Amino acid sequence: MTHRVAIVGAGPSGFYAADGLLRGRPDLRIDIIDRLPTPYGLVRAGVAPDHQGTKAVVRQFDKLLDQPDLRFAGNLDIGGDLSWEELVAAYDAVIVATGMVIDRKLGIPGEDLPHVWGSWRFVAWLNGHPDFRGGPDLSAVKSVAVIGNGNVALDVARLLAKTPDEMAKSDIVPEAAAAIAAAPLTDIQVIGRRGAEHASFTNNELAEMGRLARAISVADASVLDAVAPAADPTPEKLRKAKNIETLKGFAAHRPGEKPVTVHFRFHETPKAIRAGEVDLSTGPIAADLVVTCIGYTGEAFPKADGVFAVGWARRGPSGTIPTNRADSHAVAKDVIAWLEDHDPKSGPDILPLAVDAEGWRRIDKAEVAAGTAQGRPRLKLVDRQALLDIAQGD
Length: 394
Ligand SMILES: Cc1cc2nc3c(=O)[nH]c(=O)nc-3n(C[C@H](O)[C@H](O)[C@H](O)COP(=O)(O)OP(=O)(O)OC[C@H]3O[C@@H](n4cnc5c(N)ncnc54)[C@H](O)[C@@H]3O)c2cc1C
What we know:
Elements: E1 4-8, H1 12-24, E2 29-33, H2 41-45, H3 52-55, H4 58-64, E3 70-73, H5 84-90, E4 93-96, E5 102-103, E6 116-118, H6 119-126, E7 143-147, H7 151-161, H8 174-182, E8 187-191, H9 203-208, E9 215-219, H10 234-251, E10 260-265, E11 272-274, E12 277-280, E13 283-286, E14 289-292, E15 296-297, E16 307-309, H11 311-315, H12 323-340, H13 357-372, H14 384-391
Parallel strand pairs: 1-2, 1-4, 2-3, 4-16, 6-14, 7-8, 7-14, 8-10, 9-10
Antiparallel strand pairs: 5-15, 11-12, 12-13
Helix pairs in contact: 1-12, 13-14
Bound molecules: flavin-adenine dinucleotide.
């Protein structure tokens, strides 16, 4: 008899954990569970649909799904369909790889108005997450305030600013693409509380904002005096210095040079939100839609013996996809050490396999075929029942 490990969450950290386990203990039986009928977590539902190169990481995870002793169990919510206690009792170890995707709140008046969207809800909509159908009404949206200074803020601004041609090779869901294309957008304000030297944009993503077909990026004058903090470690200093150079280039642009202007505004704290505007520290700005990109929190999970967390569930919502690899491999070593001290449990297989790896492959094949017909990488199925029907071969 061999040990059985359940991994809850089929995002990058879950797959990297499976990879780490199999490197150290190829004999293990591993079940990787997700509440969605599809694997890959934020690579599918968060990473921007026009950044297909980033999404290509899933090819490594696909290979893991070919391993005979690794099962995928999709459409199974732990804490809902099956309790954490049942899972912990049935498996020799449980790895929690559930991520963190509850939008953090700004804590200011007006935040609950219908035109205020958290970035998770917004990107989940345009990425086709089945639990987040129905996006914001963009039909009269001229101005957007994007609050936050990380890459997710850039993703949101860029996806709104791009033309249908620029999105043609993406896998954005058609309803979102059509809503964005039809919006009478003229201004997108990207708002940061601190100076440009503190923004956590990566430079490739920031520089891309300077190459958009219908949008010109401009920056406020504060960027001209911004300097990367001397005390920062060298890679951070270099990243920030490059960002400041890029923003200085934006500061030389004039608003209105193209149909859409993306304004980078620093040292501005949102104080309140009302219909049509956001109050900043220096006064109100127009905003028919507000998207907050200020981070995430997660759902609770049990902290018991034999339960190990990885990825965003362990570290919080920071770090890129590759960051999860070393982290998950290290935790996999701890799991292997734990298993050495514990005899394998005997007991029945409790896992319902509504969508297994074969089912996911059917979904994948159907989506890719539908996308290919339109010259796109895939056309996502966004309805849970439709996903289940395809997975089950109906
Ligand atoms: C909008 C956005 C854009 C991003 N863009 C990039 C990018 O361009 N490049 C980059 O490198 N990184 C990017 N990241 C970061 C990257 O996505 C994360 O580092 C990574 O996805 C974290 O992996 P994870 O496995 O911890 O969590 P996740 O990817 O969130 O995976 C968690 C999985 O657990 C499942 N789950 C949760 N709870 C349960 C439960 N109770 N039962 C069963 N299943 C459950 C979820 O359905 C999900 O599939 C982005 C993040 C966001 C939010």
